[in-house]
Amino acid sequence: TIKRPLNEEIIATHNAKHSAAIDADYAALAAKLARVGINIDAVKAKVASFAVAIPSWGTATGGTRFGRFPIPGEPTNVQERLTDCAVVQQLCRVTPGVSTHFPWDNTSDPAAMREEAESLGLYFDAVNSNTFQDQPGQAETYKFGSLSAAAKASREQAIAHNIDCIEIGKKLGSKALTVWVGDGTNFPGQQSFRDSFDRYLDSSAAIYAALPSDWLMLIEHKFFEPAFYSTVIADWGVNLMAANALGAKARCLVDLGHHAPNVNVEQIVSMLDRVGKLGGFHFNDSKYGDDDLDAGAINPHRLFLIFNELVEAELRAPKEFAPAYMIDESHNLTDPAESLLSAAEAIVCAYARALLVDRVALKAHRESNDVLMAFKTLRAAYNIDVSPLVAKARVDAGGAADPVAALRESGWRKAKAAERKSEVNKAAGII
Ligand code: AOS
Ligand code: ZN
Ligand code: ZN
């Protein structure tokens, strides 16, 4: 049996309060969808099989380069982060995977960590390496780059770290390594674009060679930050060049915040899928840049359009379709568990809406160049309030009718505030 951190009775009581409303809203939506020939139970079954991974580090407050505002009761080590992942999963049931980050999740015993996760009903998704900051005591600096650095010793250290991540990941049961590097320049002339990319490719080939046969290497591009004049893996074009050069196990990862403003991300998704290189996503939202705001908070329509491409891609090749989904947010103002619940809901709702698109009609409108009706076909699905469907799927799977409300009713964070050695408690002299 799975160890669930929250008292199941609190969730049952919460659900009992909401069940009549959920059932009535679900029946009304079922009738509405039936009129256009959609069987709601079939859509619910698809929604029930959806999963998006939580980044272990996303369970604690993030911050910006200007500061961080820790909250009482937030997790302070990898065990506590796993427990909070289990809390989120217990309530929403679409986040059974945990994505780790090394050395942030450092553990002397990955096998025990895997057992712990499994006992909580969780598994480990992609492993993220970190060569964008120097760790205390490390021999070489990444100040001037890691996998692409001019200094061979820095490159070798970065390669070794990524291979370490693969070794830990094998023990955790992961099947992918996500590589994002901060490598780039702040000044014109600082480095040769071409030589830096060549060095990146050489280093990445050494990592690629260490990948187990059933693993993927997910390459994450980003056009700025921390480097502000150029980055080595700046956009999906360079990303695709790298993935093609490395081989079949290398794929491109799309972080929604890593593109220039107004770039058509859904088109990038479609093109990467076209060439079999769509590796996965880091979901978040943004207004200006890599803002790492909660998924769907700013532009839920863009999220829907991305899922529209994903649903089409899956229909076209159901067997090969398996992009890795992860939430990548920085929670500066909210309780991270609440934000993760709210983001997971936005993501699964975008998916559910995309499932409702009338694809036969859309195809016909495209073929006859009926522009407005093609647009209205998409918009009709976007306009449907799928929350009763998503809530029903969640409650059927054992989750909460209203996850954020149930979390608050459980008093989880308050209870943890008394137990965990948070920075807030340390500052207040309580521990
Ligand atoms: C950085 O901008 C990227 O989004 C990476 O995915 C990064 O490793 C992650 O956000 C953790 O800092
Ligand atoms: Zn990311
Ligand atoms: Zn980012």
UniProtKB/TrEMBL annotation:
Enzyme category, top tier: isomerase
Known EC number: 5.3.1.-, 5.3.1.14
A GO term for molecular function: metal ion binding
InterPro entries, per database record: L-rhamnose_isomerase, Xyl_isomerase-like_sf
Keyword annotations of the record: Isomerase, Manganese, Metal-binding
Gene3D superfamilies in alphabetical order: Divalent-metal-dependent TIM barrel enzymes
PANTHER family membership: L-RHAMNOSE ISOMERASE
Protein name as it appears in the record: L-rhamnose isomerase/sugar isomerase
Organism: Rhizomicrobium palustre
